[in-house]
UniProtKB/TrEMBL annotation:
Official protein name in the record: Alkylphosphonate utilization protein
Limits of the Protein YjdM N-terminal domain: 4-32
InterPro entries: YjdM, YjdM_C, YjdM_N
Chain ranges of the Protein YjdM C-terminal domain: 44-114
Organism: Romboutsia weinsteinii
């Protein structure tokens, strides 16, 4: 059996090859064999797997309760000019302003690229 590197994201030893990519079955991270850079680990993707960039517009894909407010952010709310925070410890990797709510942090898993 060949010796494949551990997953750079979760350090799982159960990686496998899929064509030219290495894949981790535990966290679903994919990367090119031997070509992992710091920049590659900071890529933020939306719920559909599209790569997000600073300044993009996104759409919320599920209703979100807002802590400290009686209202919620409704599905389909469009958010313009996002700012990405790749090293967010709490998982909220998007900073933005939402009309009616103000400055917010969102998780990339609850938005899709508009």
């Amino acid at each position: 059996m060949e010796n494949l590197p551990n997953c750079p994201k979760c350090n799982s030893e159960y990686t496998y090859e899929d064509g030219t990519l290495l894949v981790c079955p535990e966290c679903a991270h994919e990367w090119a064999a031997g070509a992992e850079t710091e920049e590659d680990t900071n890529i933020i993707k939306d719920a559909n797997g599209n790569i997000l960039n600073d300044g993009d517009a996104v759409t919320v894909i599920k209703d979100l309760k807002v802590k400290g407010s009686s209202s919620s952010i409704k599905i389909g709310t469009k958010v313009k000019s996002i700012r990405l925070v790749p090293d967010a410890a709490d998982g909220h990797d998007i900073e933005c302003k939402i009309d009616g709510f103000g400055a917010m942090k969102l998780k990339s898993s609850v938005v899709k690229k508009a």
